[in-house]
Each structure stands twice: as structure tokens, then as C-alpha cells.
Specification:
The chain is mainly beta. It contains one helix and 14 strands, in the order H-E-E-E-E-E-E-E-E-E-E-E-E-E-E. Helices cover 12% and strands 57% of the residues.
Length: 214
């Protein structure tokens, strides 16, 4: 068996790398991009015509792992001051939730501070008072995902804030409704599968989350 070797001069070797290396880097970058993708969208929050806050929704995909993070900030000063800061985070692996957290602070007071962790065959859920409950089964969707994609063929979604599944009602084409345990009603509007607006009815007032164009 003969072994052949190719000897390149310094100049030819440099030429080889100039021609081949960009192609290798392009192939590598395409493979990495296919595994890792990040998407960020933003909504302005309106009460009537007044802009009172914002929502930033971030989705990060890394192979089989998907992370969602939703940050909501509201600051209103009319007759009284109202400030709300909400952060929700979820991690999915192979489309199954493995952990999640939800924290809501209103006027400096922590109202919600939930932690969810997948264990063997169940989820452990701990609230701000350190009360622990368990949920048997797998969680494959959550409220945070509604900001990114239309929930086609879904009849319920898991609420990170209320630690339970909530029925999802399809009112008309591209419009879905969630009736929250606290009495709030959320309407999600979609266009071509992407969320473009969320209308929230509360006991005090109604607000709209309007997506900022990319």
C-alpha cells in the first residue's frame, strides 16, 4: 500500500487556507446557528392612549433546550402611584418543561414568587410562603409561549403565576382567551402565527399590549 503526501509551500498553504477556511467557517456557523437561535420581541403597554409600561419577551433555543423569559414593567402615576415588575422564566428540554419561575412585585411588595422544578414523574412547586405542592404528569406548554406563537390545537396552558392549567378558548380565527383565577381576562391576537397584541381586562381598568414592529 502506498502512502501519498502533498507538500505545500508557505505561499500555497496560505492560499489554501484563504480559499478553504471561509467555507469551513460558513458551514460551522450555519450548524451552530441551527442549534442556537435567539429571538426578542417587545410590547408597549397602553391604558387608553397613555403608554404606561413595556413587556420584553425573549426566546433562546439551544439544541433541544428552549428558554423563555418575559419581563413586564409598569409605572403609573395618576391619583396614586402604581408600579409593577414581573419576571417569568421557563426552561424546556425536548418540549417538556424542566423548570420555571415567576416573580411579581407590586409597589415594592412581593406578591408572587414561585419556583417550579421537574422531578421524577412530577413537578415540585414552591410559592412565596414556601408552601409546596406537586403536579403529576408533564407540562408541555405555558403562558409565556403565547407571546411567541399561536397556540394551535391547544385547549389549556399552564400558568406560572397560578401554578395550574387554565382553559384556553378560541374565540374567533387568530384570537384566544384566558380567564385567570383572579378574574382577569386576557385576549391574545395573532397574525401569521405571531402574537401582535394582548388585551387584558381587569377589575380596575383595561390595558393593551401592542407589539413593537421589528
Amino acid at each position: 500500500m502506498k502512502v501519498y503526501s502533498i507538500k505545500l509551500s508557505g505561499e500555497k498553504l496560505a492560499t489554501f487556507f484563504r480559499q478553504v477556511l471561509p467555507c469551513l467557517l460558513l458551514l460551522l456557523s450555519q450548524e451552530v446557528f441551527a442549534q442556537y437561535q435567539e429571538k426578542g420581541i417587545m410590547f408597549w403597554i397602553y391604558r387608553g392612549e397613555d403608554k404606561i409600561g413595556s413587556v420584553v419577551a425573549i426566546s433562546i433555543k439551544d439544541g433541544a433546550k428552549q428558554v423563555y423569559r418575559i419581563e413586564t414593567h409598569v409605572d403609573v402615576r395618576v391619583v396614586f402611584s402604581f408600579k409593577a415588575d414581573i419576571v417569568v422564566r421557563n426552561t424546556f428540554v425536548n418540549e417538556v418543561m424542566t423548570e420555571a419561575s415567576a416573580r411579581r412585585v407590586l409597589n415594592g411588595t412581593v406578591k408572587i414568587n414561585n419556583a417550579i422544578e421537574k422531578q421524577s414523574g412530577r413537578y415540585q412547586m414552591v410559592d412565596k410562603d414556601r408552601d409546596t405542592t406537586y403536579y403529576k404528569g408533564l407540562i408541555s406548554n405555558c403562558v409565556s409561549q403565547l407571546y411567541f406563537k399561536e397556540p394551535v390545537n391547544q385547549t389549556s396552558v399552564f400558568s406560572e403565576a397560578f401554578l395550574e392549567h387554565i382553559p384556553l378558548i378560541k374565540n374567533t380565527t387568530d384570537i384566544y382567551e384566558l380567564r385567570m383565577p383572579d378574574g382577569h381576562i386576557n385576549h391574545y391576537f395573532y397574525n401569521n402565527g405571531e402574537c401582535i397584541e394582548v388585551a387584558i381586562e381587569t377589575q380596575l381598568s383595561n390595558v393593551r399590549l401592542v407589539r413593537v414592529p421589528d
